[in-house]
């Protein structure tokens, strides 16, 4: 089943939006397969955002993503990569539609609440960058006699 890497950025944690964000993906129907609160190192930030290393905002981006804890997550489900990007909304919250996470809660392009993988290739790369295989769980939500 398709998996994507999602991350509540430091502003999302500071603004108490963690539960709200998990809630949206769970209620949509996706399954949480891995999660950990972590302080990103400078090295990990630079690797993760390596595609932007020559952009003028790279320094600020690395500084911000390492400024406090983030919640790294793996969510799973059919078409989760593209659907999660739609649910996040456009990069700049000013352009993000109401009803999306960035449209509802984001204020600036730097502090835009959440990161999500943008392709199957980046999802695979980012999941293995942030998680060991033992931290991603394979479990079923069906066949529980105590769910009615
Ligand atoms: P992300 O990687 O964080 O999920 O965001 P994204 O795909 O929507 O956007 P991307 O182009 O990958 O940019 C990565 C992050 O860099 C910051 N950014 N700042 N100052 C600027 O013009 C600018 N442009 C991008 C944003 O925080 C963006 O999420
Ligand atoms: Mg991106």
From TrEMBL:
Keywords: ATP-binding, Cytoplasm, Kinase, Magnesium, Metal-binding, Nucleotide metabolism, Nucleotide-binding, Phosphoprotein, Transferase. GO terms for molecular function: ATP binding; metal ion binding; nucleoside diphosphate kinase activity. It holds the Pfam family NDK. GO terms for biological process: CTP biosynthetic process; GTP biosynthetic process; UTP biosynthetic process. It is found in: Cytoplasm. The modification Phosphothreonine is found at residue 91. The active site is at 115 (pros-phosphohistidine intermediate). Its EC number is 2.7.4.6. It comes from the Bacteria. One of its GO terms (cellular component) is cytoplasm. Residues 1-138 form the Nucleoside diphosphate kinase-like domain. PROSITE patterns: NDPK (PS00469), NDPK_LIKE (PS51374). ATP binds at residues 9, 57, 85, 91, 102, 112. The modification Phosphoserine is found at residue 122. It catalyses: a ribonucleoside 5'-diphosphate + ATP = a ribonucleoside 5'-triphosphate + ADP; a 2'-deoxyribonucleoside 5'-diphosphate + ATP = a 2'-deoxyribonucleoside 5'-triphosphate + ADP; dZDP + ATP = dZTP + ADP. Homotetramer. (Microbial infection) Catalyzes the phosphorylation of dZDP to dZTP, when the bacterium is infected by a phage that produces the substrate for the synthesis of dZTP (2- amino-2'-deoxyadenosine 5'-triphosphate), which is then used by the phage as a DNA polymerase substrate. Major role in the synthesis of nucleoside triphosphates other than ATP. The ATP gamma phosphate is transferred to the NDP beta phosphate via a ping-pong mechanism, using a phosphorylated active-site intermediate. Belongs to the NDK family. This is Nucleoside diphosphate kinase. The gene is ndk.
